[in-house]
Amino acid sequence: MAKKPKPSASEPTVIANAAQARKWAAARGVTEIECLVPDLAGVARGKIMPSAKFFDDTAMALPSSIFMQTISGEYPEETAEFRFDPSDGDIELLPDFATLCLVPWARDPTAQIIHDAVYHDGRAVEIAPRQVLKRVIALYHEQGWIPVVAPEIEFYLVKRNTDPDYPLEPPIGRSGRPEAGRRSYSISAVNEFDALFEDIYAFAEAQQLEVDTLIHEEGAAQMEINLRHGDPLALSDQVFLLKRTIREAALAHDIYATFMAKPIAHEPGSAMHIHQSILSKETGKNIFTDDAGRPTPEFFHYIAGQQRYTPSVTCMLAPYVNSYRRLVRGLSAPVNVQWGYDNRTTGLRIPPSSPENRRVENRVPSSDANPYLAMAASLACGYLGLTRHLTPSEPETGMAASEEFDLPVGLLEAVGLFEQTEELAEVFGRTFLTTFAAVKRAEFATFMRVISPWEREFLLLNV
Fold first, then answer.
1. Banded pLDDT at 399 (limits 50, 70, 90)
2. Average pLDDT in the 43-64 region?
3. Which of 170, 201, 226, 311 could pair with 178 in a Cys bridge, judged by C-beta atoms 3.0 to 4.6 Å apart?
4. Is the pLDDT confidence value at 388 over 80?
C-alpha cells in the first residue's frame, strides 16, 4: 500500500516553481514525470518523460486538436460556426507546479503534474477546460467575490467487462457473492471491498487529495466519495486526479470503477453534486448570509441564476447520450430546477447548515461530467443570477421529482439550448460554445451509428 512521503521541515507546503519542483522530485527519487492536460471529456492527455529531461526544459507541445476530439477519438465536421484548423498546429503546455504529486500506483518512482494550454504568443487556449473554469473564476474576482465549492462524486464498481454488448454486473466482494438489492449507507456493503478502499485512501493521501467521507449509495456496489470544500480550480484538479486514482485502484483488484451516469439499466444513476457558496474578498464572509444570520438578496439571486440557466448548460453537466438515462422522472435524479430547503427531490437543494456555511447544492451534474466544465457551468449560472439580480421561484416544500421536466430530455436538445443562450457566450466565449457544441453533435452522430439491442428486440420481426 502506498504511503505518503514525509516532507522535510524546509520543504514548502505548495510548490511554486521549477526549482522547488526539482528539489521535491529529487528527494523522492522520481525518475519519470507524467505531464497531464485534461481534454473536453476530462480525459488525461499529455506526455511522459524522464525527470531530468522535464526539468531541463519544461516547455512541451501537443496538437491543438486535442481539445476538439470526441470521446470516440473522432473530430466534428466543419460548419459555418465551427472551423477545424487543417494545419493542426501545436499549442504549448505550461506546468502548474502546485499540482505536482506522486503517481502512487506506479512501479517506479513517478510524479504527475497538470498543465495549462497556451498559444505560442502566450494567450491561454480558450477551449481548454481548465481555462474555461479560470475565466469564470476571474469574473467572480472582478466583482470582489471568491467562489467556494465541494463536490460529491458517485461511481459504480462492476465486474470486468470486455464485451460492450453484455450488460454490466456488480463485482464479487470478499464474501464471494455479488451485491443484490438496495443497501444505502450500508457499512457491511462497503466492507465487502475494504482492501480496495484502503488502497484508494492511501493513493489519495499520497497525492494530497482531501477525501472527506465514503458512503455506499443506493445502487448495487454504487459508492460516493466527498471532497472537502475549497477553491473551484483546486477541487476540479482533485476530482480529475481522484477519478483516475479510483479506476487504477479498482483495476489492481481485478474490477472496474465506472463514472458513467447510468451504467446499469435498473439501478440509480451516478451524480456529481456540487455545493457552492460565495465569499467576499474584502471581509472573507459568506455573501449568502447577513450580519444577523439571515439569507441575503445575493443568496436568492444566486438560486435564481441556477434556475434560469441550468437548462442551458445541461450539456456541460450531462455531456453524453447516456447522461440523460439518469435524468428521468421517478428516480433520485432531478428533472427540474425547483429549489427547496433540505429537499432531495429538487434540482437545487439548500442543505441544513449554520448561517456562515449557507450554500446551494446543484444536484443536476452527473459523474461523467468533466469536473472543470461542470464547476464552470454551475458557477456561471450563479454569476449571471447575481449580476442580473434575478428573482427565484418560491421554495418547493413537497415532492418535486414527479413534476414536469425543466431540463432538456436529450443531448441534442441540450446542445441547442446551450448555443442559443447568448449570455453564455459572454461568460465562456463564443469559440468555446461552438467547439463544445460541435464535439457533442459529433458524438451523437457516432452513437446513432450503433444498432441497439432494443431495436433488434422490438423491430427485427415486428415491423
1. confident
2. 90
3. 170
4. yes
Instruction: Name the residue ranges covered by the structural domains of the chain.
Output: 18-126, 136-457
CATH class, 18-126 region: alpha beta
Q: How many CB atoms lie within 10 A of CB 243?
A: 22
pLDDT digits 0-9 by tens, 251-309: 999 999 999 999 999 899 999 999 999 999 999 999 999 999 999 999 999 999 999 99
Residues in the chain: 463
261 grid coordinates: 451516469
Backbone angles phi, psi at 325, to 5 degrees: -75, -20
- Output the 3-class SS for the chain: CCCCCCCCCCCCCCCCCHHHHHHHHHHCCCCEEEEEEECCCCCEEEEEEEHHHHHHCCCEEEEHHHHCCCCCCCCCCCCCCCCCCCCCCEEEEEECHHHCEECCCCCCCEEEEEEEEECCCCCECCCCHHHHHHHHHHHHHHCCEEEEEEEEEEEEEEECCCCCCCCCCCCECCCCCECCCCCCCCHHHHHCCHHHHHHHHHHHHHCCCCEEEEEECCCCCEEEEEECCECHHHHHHHHHHHHHHHHHHHHHCCEEEECCCCCCCCCCCCEEEEEEEEEECCCCCECCECCCCCECHHHHHHHHHHHHHHHHHHHHHCCCCCHHHHCCCCCCCCCCCCEEECCCCCCEEECCCCHHHCCEEECCCECCCCHHHHHHHHHHHHHHHHHHCCCCCCCCCCCCCCCCCCCCCCHHHHHHHHHHCHHHHHHHCHHHHHHHHHHHHHHHHHHHCCCCHHHHHHHCCCC
The domains spanning 18-126 and 136-457 adopt the same CATH topology: no
333-360 pLDDT, tens digit each: 888 999 999 998 899 999 999 999 999 9
